[in-house]
């Protein structure tokens, strides 16, 4: 049993994760409903839901993109990595539910806070996964050199925590923080590409 777990290749782990992410995105888009009327004016009530869907899609896509890069700079995975990866997928799988609640209640504090909890859980789970991968590969491995101190990851976790804390007082500020974090991660990160070209 243990040998079967530790023998999984990064490629198999990536393929499984890709499938889960595809299902998550499918669930999110299926939660959208077309307007009842036939004019462009009837789209206005859907703007908040579409905005939350777009933000959620971007977050999931960012994790998919970064997960892909992680798998390109590791040579092996073990049981700890498998569980850390499952932990990340658990939090990402909550995104459709959190987005579905926030969409029609974008001005309400509780849905904004819960959405932030899902984002925070995902960010923490991603950091746990990267630490597990570094531990498996070694401190001199390509992934360790690529991640470095991972300041952006740590700042993202802190930003989410602040957003959740202030959500009961000011509803719109946390949304601004969520968007700012997404924009920060949209900026191309060349660390992985640099080490991918190294032998």
Question: How is the topology of this model organized?
Answer:
Layout (H helix, E strand, L loop, with lengths): L1 H5 L3 H21 L16 H26 L6 H15 L1 H8 L6 H29 L4 H6 L3 H16 L5 H15 L4 H6 L3
Helix pairs in contact: 2-3, 2-4, 2-5, 3-5, 3-9, 4-6, 5-6, 6-8, 8-9
Quick structural summary:
With 199 residues, the chain is mostly helical. It is built from 10 helices and no strands. The chain has helices at residues 2-6, 10-30, 47-72, 79-93, 95-102, 109-137, 142-147, 151-166, 172-186, 191-196.
Word description of this protein:
With 199 residues, the protein is mainly α. Helices cover 74% and strands 0% of the residues. The chain is built from ten helices and no strands. It has helices at 2-6, 10-30, 47-72, 79-93, 95-102, 109-137, 142-147, 151-166, 172-186, 191-196. Helix 2 (10-30) runs parallel beside helix 4 and helix 4 (79-93) runs antiparallel to helix 6 (109-137). The longest helix is centred in the middle third of the chain and has 29 residues, at 109-137. The two termini are 32 Å apart.
What are the salient characteristics of this protein?
199 residues, mainly alpha, 0% strand, globular
Strand tally is 0
Estimate the strand proportion: under 5%
Radius of gyration of CA atoms, rounded to a whole number = 18 Å
Q: Considering DSSP H and I runs of 4 or more, what fraction of the residues is helical? A: over 70%
First-to-last CA distance: 32 Å
Describe the sheet with the most strands.
none
Task: Specify the structural class.
Answer: mainly alpha
Uncertain stretches of 5 or more adjacent residues? 1-6
Average of the residue pLDDT scores: 86
């Amino acid at each position: 049993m243990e040998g079967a777990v530790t023998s999984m290749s990064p490629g198999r782990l990536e393929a499984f994760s890709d499938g889960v992410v595809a299902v998550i995105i499918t669930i999110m888009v299926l939660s959208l409903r077309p307007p009842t009327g036939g004019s462009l004016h009837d789209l206005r009530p859907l703007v908040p839901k579409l905005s939350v869907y777009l933000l959620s899609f971007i977050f999931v896509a960012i994790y998919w993109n970064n997960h892909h890069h992680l798998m390109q700079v590791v040579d092996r995975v073990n049981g700890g990595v498998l569980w850390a990866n499952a932990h990340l997928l658990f939090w990402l799988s909550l995104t459709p539910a959190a987005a579905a609640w926030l969409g029609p209640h974008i001005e309400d504090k509780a849905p904004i806070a819960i959405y932030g909890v899902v984002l925070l859980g995902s960010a923490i789970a991603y950091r746990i996964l990267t630490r597990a991968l570094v531990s498996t590969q070694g401190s001199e491995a390509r992934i360790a050199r690529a991640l470095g101190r991972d300041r952006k990851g740590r700042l993202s976790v802190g930003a989410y925590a602040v957003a959740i804390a202030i959500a009961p007082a000011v509803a719109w500020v946390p949304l601004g923080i969520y968007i700012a974090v997404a924009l920060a991660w949209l900026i191309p990160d060349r660390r992985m590409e640099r080490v991918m070209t190294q032998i």
